[in-house]
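hey m, so remember when u said the tokens were messed up on ur end? i reran from scratch. heres the input so u can diff it against urs
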Amino acid sequence: MPNTPNILTIAGSDSGGGAGVQADLKTIMAMGGYGMSVITALTAQNGMGVSGIHAPEPDFVVLQLKTVLEGFPVAAAKTGMLFSAEIIQAIVPLLAGRAFPLVVDPVSVSQSGSRLLCDDAVQVMKEDLLPISDLLTPNTPEAEMLTGMIISSTEDIHAAGAKILTMGPRAVLIKGGHMPGAVMVTDWLFEPGTEPKALPQAKVDTTNNHGTGCTLSAAIATGLGQGLPLRVSVARAQKFLNLALRKSYAPGKGCGPVNHAASGPLFA
């Protein structure tokens, strides 16, 4: 399929298959892209939680990234779990000079509450990675981590989005899944020089929501790699995730993943 764009995920592996690189690759394929991966960490996890993390040496993460970039024309990339300051510092020089859009999902805590980003990596992410990102996709706890704010209202989200934009990303999408709301979930898109854009979606009542952030960011990256404008890519990714949540199920014990195969012919 010569018109299939190559989409790269730089993230951790989820042995349970619901999040991380596994969720990214499923999403990329469902959205019409060809998925490639750079593994930043191995996790031992299932629907009940993370029982262990093993990260490769930063030099090997760099070797993976160099090898992919040498062998494939990358149309877009996303980052997920990066784990350590050393890994972030190692990959930023290769990504800074890229010719493709980069979506950064600042993964810090798993769905089950396990820490996926070392404390000393937060400042490095803010100083080195955010300024080279085309879109940053934090949920509200991650936005709080980056800004030092407490976010409990729409006004707080607006203030946080404006503050994060000053850190360098070209755009910020603060996800509203952690905010209270019985009927709707609203993501907010921030771009320099424009008013914040509300992007509401119907709330899906399910506990099978493992991998939602990974899925959304991978879907957005795929859209950007297909040449779609940012707002179109975000709206299409929201639609994909919403359907995947509505069709989600638990293949094993604990919290199940979203259903990446739910779209059927929707995006064919």
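this time it looks ok to me. Residues 38 and 63 are 9 Å apart (CA to CA). if urs says something different then somethings off w ur setup not the seq
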